[in-house]
Structure of non-specific serine/threonine protein kinase:
Amino acid sequence: MAAKLIEGDPQRLGDYRLAGRLGAGRRGVVYEAYDSGGRRVAVKVPHGDSELWRPLAGEVAAIRAAAPYCTARVIDADCAGARPYVVSEYVAGPSLRGAGRTLAGPDLLHLAAALATALTALHEAGIVHRDLTPDNVLLGPDGPRVVGFGPVSPTETTLTWPRLAMSAPAYTAPEAFTGREYGPAADVFAWGAVVFHAATGREAFEGSSLGTVMHRVLSVDPDLGPIPQPLRALVADALAKDPERRPTARDLLRDLVHADATVRLGAPCLAPDCLTHASPAACLPAACLAPSGGEAPRWAQEWTAERLTAEEVLGRRVCLADALLVARAPLTLDFLLAAGGAMAARLRTPCDDPGLGTVAEDAYVTLDPADRPFAPAMFLRLADGRGGPRGTRGTEERIAEAFGPLVVRAGDLARLADPALPYAWPRLAGWIEADRDARARLARDRLFWLALTTLLTLALVVALATRGGPV
């Protein structure tokens, strides 16, 4: 849930009306906002000189073109304005850190896959996240989403280790402390540290001071005992001190997808080339096949006969493990991303985080039917900043009370608690549009009658002048 805007925060950016603060970090401030159609979005306003962001339209385009798996999709951006901003879809749900719980078993595997899927999509688009932490992982109702990435100003591409470390030292790769290039391998290191946090609820590199944390990142290997295999081995590889020894995000995703297939199949680990074998059934463990001379499993009969591709299998919502086993070609990037996204979708986190429009509509439907006709006039005044309640005082007081925190009352005066409500609540937006149209019609009617009266007056003057009588 967003906190209130503070002094200095913008009220509006482009077509987006800001409703509150979702968070602030090293890169900037993220706001809850609504577009002119009432869609709820997240708007990120970066720190720094706006002039530095003008050349970054190309990077924004690359971000928007990244495969939309396990990340908050970028909807819009303006790098050329006086106050640059990036707009992404709103993800309802707590952060991994804010959720205050640890994950185990399939949930932990699915989270790890979600993060690897997001990093693979970003890295394949040429984007380095640079700030993957538990705070930038949201546990959404449709699976985990990675947020916090975005265009990087020229000053940030050459960040020195103090600036990176002060933000999240326990998730900063060793090369950032030693002046080496901070690239995709650093994101993989952060992946390992975030998975460790998800499994244990603590940092992989704890310390009471920055120096202590830095020493541990550079010299100490954390105890990975609480993380089960095969995930433990992947985390150990990701946390290697030498970036050259770490796997790529795509390597991690491939191994996680294979591990998930093995678990779902209930069989021992399969050889890597099994999933690209011309005849997948040939390399399955004997326990997964029918007895010699017996009938082959039904799935093998159906899928071998139809020669399904990976995309066709996933499109039919067939078991992910079986989909991998019937893949008749090397696993493509699209296949891996789709498989990782399917794994991530199994970690769903229910969230009660309704938008302003939903809260307002729920309040409206609870009004007494006799009071509802008075709501439009009252909210039109509030939207115009004219205060209220007035007129039918008892009725409008009941309406204001029903809307609770959305209407702030002080004696006889009232105002909208959030100026974004006219954007967020479609019903109020409809009232405003209808009122605007009515005012425009009234203005046109007044202009018409004024013109007609003027013409009649001129006609009368001409007629009297023509007769020679007094005007």
